[in-house]
Design goal:
The structure is a single chain. Helix content is 6%, strand content 50%. It is mostly beta strands. It has 2 domains: 43 residues, no CATH class; 91 residues, SH3 type barrels (Roll). Strands 4-3-2-1-5-6 form a 6-stranded antiparallel beta sheet, with no helix packed on it. The longest helix is centred in the C-terminal third of the chain and has 9 residues. It is elongated. The N and C termini lie far apart (41 Å).
Length: 145
């Protein structure tokens, strides 16, 4: 069974991982919280919420929505692609090409294409950052560096 887990950033810029829920503060205020273990309740920045995809990168690191990854062939050679992991209403998660190599920029593929257990398992991903802590990566890619 797939592990359902979320992450989010606190105001102090620390990551918390666990069960995502909302807490009603008043009639017109709701905050998002992550419960890491029973009895804990940490308020997080809503824009930083990302769900665990159920996949890990080549180093065994869990891949979350909002992660930036580079694509590698099975032998470790880089393809030139930089991908952003996104939520998809069709496939659950997509990998959107932010920087193209052999793939066109802006193209999105179901993330399961990169799962080693699937048909297209000759490719691997390696997390290089995320859109919340490393916006400079996206900025550099947009500027063509």
């Amino acid at each position: 069974m797939r592990e359902i887990k979320f992450r989010g950033l606190t105001d102090e810029k620390n990551w918390v991982y666990g069960f995502l829920h909302q807490r009603v503060v008043s009639a017109d205020e709701v905050v998002f919280c992550i419960q890491e273990k029973p009895g804990t309740d940490t308020e997080i920045i809503p824009e930083s919420i990302g769900e665990f995809t159920g996949l890990k990168d080549k180093n065994g690191k869990k891949i979350y929505e909002g992660d930036l990854c580079k694509e590698l062939y099975e032998d470790g050679i880089e393809t030139g692609e930089i991908l952003q992991i996104l939520w998809s209403p069709y496939y659950k998660f997509d990998a959107k090409v932010i920087k193209g190599g052999t793939l066109s920029e802006g193209l999105s593929f179901p993330l399961w294409h990169w799962d080693k257990r699937k048909e297209n398992g000759y490719r691997q991903l390696e997390i290089i950052g995320n859109i919340y802590e490393n916006p400079e990566i996206l900025k550099k890619l947009k500027e063509g560096e």
